[in-house]
Structures are given as C-alpha cells and as structure tokens.
Amino acid sequence: MGAIDHLAIETLGADDACDGLALSGEARWNQNEADWRFFLTRGTVFGIRDGDGHLIATAALLPYSSGNAWISMVLVTQSWRRRGLATKLLDTCLDAAAKQGVTAWLDATPAGATVYGPLGFAPTLELRRLRFAGSATAPELASDGNLDEMIARDRHAMGFDRSALLRELSRRSGSQLISHGSAMALIRGGRTARHIGPLFADDAGSATALVETIAQSETGPILIDVVSEHDELLMNLTNSGWSIERPFQRMRFGRATIQNAEPPIAVAGPEYG
Ligand SMILES: CC(C)(COP(=O)(O)OP(=O)(O)OC[C@H]1O[C@@H](n2cnc3c(N)ncnc32)[C@H](O)[C@@H]1OP(=O)(O)O)[C@@H](O)C(=O)NCCC(=O)NCCS
User: Residue 135 is part of a domain; what is its CATH number?
Assistant: First the structure.
C-alpha cells in the first residue's frame, strides 16, 4: 500500500467531466458526459491524480432522499489497479455517507464486489445486463409516457423518491418515455448504446411486449439491466436475440432503510440504481 500513500484524494468539479469520461470509456462503460455532469454537480465525486496530474481513479456518492445514497463510478485506470486505490476511495465515500447519516447502496460488477464485500457491504438483489444489436424494423416511437406516473412507480419500487434524477434523465436530448399496456420505460442515450430503464410493468408479458416494441424501433445497440428474479422476461428476451452481457450485484452498507419496496423490472442503470 506504500506506493499510494502520497496520492491525495480530491473532490472533483464539473470541469472534470471529460477526464471522468476518459476513465469510464477505458473500462468500456456506457456513461456519457451528461452522466458525469450529473454526478459532478448533484453528488460528490472523489478523484485521485498521478504525479503528472492525470485522473487515475474515481468514486461518486450521489445523495437520494430518505437517508439513502448511491455509490458509483468506482474506476481505477488499468496500470494503477491492485494497489488499494478503490479501497481508499470507498473508505472516503463511506466516511462521507456516515457524516450525512445515509445508507449507501451500489450495483457492483464482479470485480467491484471483491472490493466491497470485505468493506462490509451486504448483497441484496442481482441484476442481469442484456444487450440487443438493434435493427430497426419499425418507425421511431413517439414519447407517450407520463413522467409523474413514472416517478410514482419508481418511488414505490425503490422505497424513496428519485424525481430529480428521473426529471433530468427524461429531459436529455434523445430521451423517450414509452408506455405499452401496464408497462412503462425510460430510454436514454449512452456513450456507445441506448439504455432502457427504469422499466415498470405488472407482468412479464407486458414487460416483454414493451421491450420488444422498443427494440424494433432502435437502429443501434441497446442495453437493459433486468432484476434477475424476472426470469420469464429474461427467457423471453434471450429467445428473441438479446444476449446476457454481465451480472451486477446490488449491495447495501448501513441499516435497512426500505420497507415494502417492490423492485422494478429493470433498473435505471447500475450507476444510478
Ligand atoms: C474494480 C476496481 C475498481 C478495483 O480497483 P483497485 O484499485 O484495483 O482495487 P483495490 O486495489 O482497492 O482492491 C482491493 C481488493 O479487492 C480485490 N480485488 C480488486 N480487484 C480485483 C480483481 N480484478 N479480481 C479479484 N479481486 C480483486 C482484492 O482482494 C484486492 O486486494 P489485493 O490486491 O490485496 O488482493 C478496478 O479493477 C476497476 O476499475 N475495474 C473496472 C471498472 C469496475 O468494474 N469498477 C467497479 C464498479 S462496481
């Protein structure tokens, strides 16, 4: 650990969005500059630079409501891995969470989970990320969903309010709010693929119909992060050409803050929960 003791942790600002994007792009993540700006302006992003001033590691703490916060954008550039930088940044996020009195949540990649488990994060639900190549056979969909309804369904699913996040995501250029029967989803742009989520539906059939309608209207690749207990939807999508790309493990640090929440069909994304 001695090799990193001299590296200071700093709080990044909006001007660091491009450097953050370089790190997430190196990891082949899908976040774009708008995502980084959201974390940098609405949350606290901790960063570490090397001796030449290059950003080599980050971790973000995004406050939500009712004593909850999301940790994400935990990234360490390849040549600095396995020296304790992620652990050091997570300790800083957890100190900040403790000062704010919030329970910290995150959606971990398999590599991330090996860092968070020993720090005391407990696993909760699992996610499966699916990808579809995109092959528009139908015209572009018109946004027809009701944002207030989505905010209410999201609050019910998460157990706390995320209206600021959903309003910002839905206002971005290219975002769409699409409904189909009991199902409703937000679609937004990303660095290399468009992303579906959150998605709410009363049953697997409605969820499948909505995702397939969206898929038929998209010309490029699309992603969705499905809560893995929805096995019928997962089966329907893999049978219609979607591939499972990677798992995520939702984890919690701190006391349970949520009662009677019903997880959505698909989440807003591992960076937002
Ligand atoms: C995951 C990641 C952030 C870890 O950063 P890091 O600075 O290398 O992590 P640390 O050095 O603090 O690792 C602490 C411990 O976690 C475990 N660990 C970390 N990365 C691991 C890996 N790839 N495989 C197995 N164990 C790993 C080890 O036990 C390690 O201790 P050790 O090196 O003494 O054995 C980094 O590999 C990364 O940026 N990966 C790509 C993006 C990503 O998946 N981010 C996590 C998002 S949830």
Answer: 3.40.630.90
